[in-house]
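Appendix C: a fully annotated inverse folding record. The material below is reproduced so that readers can follow the format used throughout the book. The structure is listed first as tokens, followed by the designed sequence.
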């Protein structure tokens, strides 16, 4: 399948997307590309690169690279220390998607993941619809399966509203009163209040100051619990003083990763709308199980001014 780049435009916004990994390569507003990462197909590294891509079957981590579904245990690739990350060795981010429709404002991509793909059960069919309107880019994701499986998709864009340098000049606000504390990037299972902790981003906080001595070691790579309200809601607001990005989603969680291990340290911040990490091992977390007859649905939108 041929990999290519498609451009979606409004009078205010230009977005470039490739069907390889269904990834967003650029998000240009007022002459500035607000995404960190590769800009051409030739720039993509030969190893796994999640920048701007859709991660799956299961975004984020599954502890120990295993899970049990309907009494059967499945072993997955361990590709992030002792854990499974973002779908495995060759997840949805590292394969070409089928192009179904292209217009000036809409791109529809699809993917069929066969039974046993990365050792996940069931054939899964996924559809991604990118659309632009005004200053907003919207991603609508849908999926179905012919056998019980797991599905948790997200877009892994790294945002830098300055177009260069680091995100230390940015302020971030997350609309969450709770988060899931982690040990070695895996949730303990506790849902804890953010109030009074360094994880409290209910008011805008300088990411540069949060990287200062005495702050969170290694920066943020943490899941925030979004309000349990139906429909699309405001999840986060990122600003550099000149531009403001709003992230809206119907996902239950938002993974905030400040890019401390990128080639350019803190070159961008990932705001990944998704289900909680390691959900299969925590029954009280929102389920990522998908069964025949059900439709997986996720909406993520980014609006800038």
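Designed amino acids, in order:
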């Amino acid at each position: 399948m041929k990999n290519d780049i498609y451009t979606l435009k409004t009078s205010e916004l230009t977005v470039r997307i490739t069907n390889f990994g269904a990834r967003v390569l650029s998000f240009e507003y007022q002459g500035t590309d607000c995404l960190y990462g590769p800009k051409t197909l030739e720039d993509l590294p030969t190893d796994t690169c999640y920048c701007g891509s859709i991660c799956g079957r299961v975004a984020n981590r599954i502890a120990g690279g295993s899970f049990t579904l309907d009494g059967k245990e499945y072993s997955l690739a361990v590709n992030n220390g002792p854990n499974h990350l973002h779908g495995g060795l060759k997840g949805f981010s590292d394969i070409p998607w089928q192009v179904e429709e292209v217009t000036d404002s809409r791109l529809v991509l699809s993917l069929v993941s066969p039974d046993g793909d990365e050792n996940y059960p069931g054939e899964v069919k996924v559809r991604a619809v990118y659309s632009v309107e005004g200053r907003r880019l919207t991603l609508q994701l849908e999926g179905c399966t012919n056998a019980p499986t797991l599905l948790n998709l997200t877009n892994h864009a790294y945002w830098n509203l300055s177009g260069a340098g680091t995100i230390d000049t940015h302020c971030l606000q997350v609309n969450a009163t709770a988060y899931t504390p982690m040990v070695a990037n895996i949730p303990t299972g506790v849902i804890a209040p953010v109030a009074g902790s360094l994880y409290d981003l209910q008011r805008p906080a300088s990411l540069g100051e949060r990287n200062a001595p005495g702050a969170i070691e290694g920066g943020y790579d943490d899941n925030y619990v979004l309000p349990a309200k139906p429909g699309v809601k405001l999840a986060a607001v990122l600003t550099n003083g000149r531009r403001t990005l709003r992230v809206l989603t119907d996902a239950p969680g938002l993974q905030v990763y400040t890019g401390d291990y990128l080639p350019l340290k803190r070159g961008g911040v990932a705001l990944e709308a998704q289900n909680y990490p390691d959900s299969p091992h925590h029954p009280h977390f929102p389920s990522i199980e998908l069964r025949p007859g059900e439709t997986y649905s996720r909406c993520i939108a980014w609006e800038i001014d």
